[in-house]
UniProtKB/TrEMBL annotation:
Upper lineage: Eukaryota, Metazoa, Ecdysozoa, Nematoda, Chromadorea
Coiled-coil blocks: 72-141
Keywords in alphabetical order: Coiled coil
Protein name per the record: Uncharacterized protein
Length: 150
């Protein structure tokens, strides 16, 4: 498997795992709510109304507090996970930036080499033109010498 397929499989597994956790968490919340309702009903039956309302309010506050602690814990875990993933992505970004900079450097070196080669080609063409012109002149002189001897 290549890196992308591994990453895809890992993300898929994380998704399934998170879905299961959400289902379990939902069942826990439902059970906690049912328990809260049972406690409320018990308190209403056994205690005078004002006292029962106070106790129920305390139970509700305690329940909300516990749920907020659980939510905060889950948020903290998620934040830590995301921080790690961000760190991994930043490392990958640095690696890619380094590779891009190296590629740019190699490209610049190649460009300089091409300029040098083009300069040499131009010099050779100029020399070739001079040699060609010189040979033409020599040929014309030789032809004029041959024609004049006839």
């Amino acid at each position: 498997m290549n890196f992308n397929e591994d990453l895809y499989q890992d993300l898929k597994a994380k998704y399934v795992n998170a879905s299961l956790k959400l289902s379990l968490s939902r069942n826990e919340r439902i059970n906690a709510y049912d328990k809260l309702l049972e406690e409320q009903n018990y308190v209403y039956k056994e205690l005078p109304e004002k006292l029962a309302d106070g106790i129920i309010e305390n139970i509700e506050k305690e329940h909300a507090y516990k749920m907020s602690i659980k939510a905060n814990k889950k948020m903290k875990e998620e934040q830590e996970r995301l921080s790690k993933e961000i760190e991994i992505l930043e490392d990958e970004k640095k690696t890619l930036e380094k590779a891009v900079n190296e590629t740019i450097g190699r490209t610049n070196k190649l460009e300089e080499t091409l300029r040098e080669v083009n300069g040499e080609i131009q010099k050779l063409q100029e020399e070739n033109a001079l040699i060609t012109e010189s040979l033409r002149n020599e040929i014309q002189r030789a032809q004029s010498v041959i024609i004049s001897k006839k």
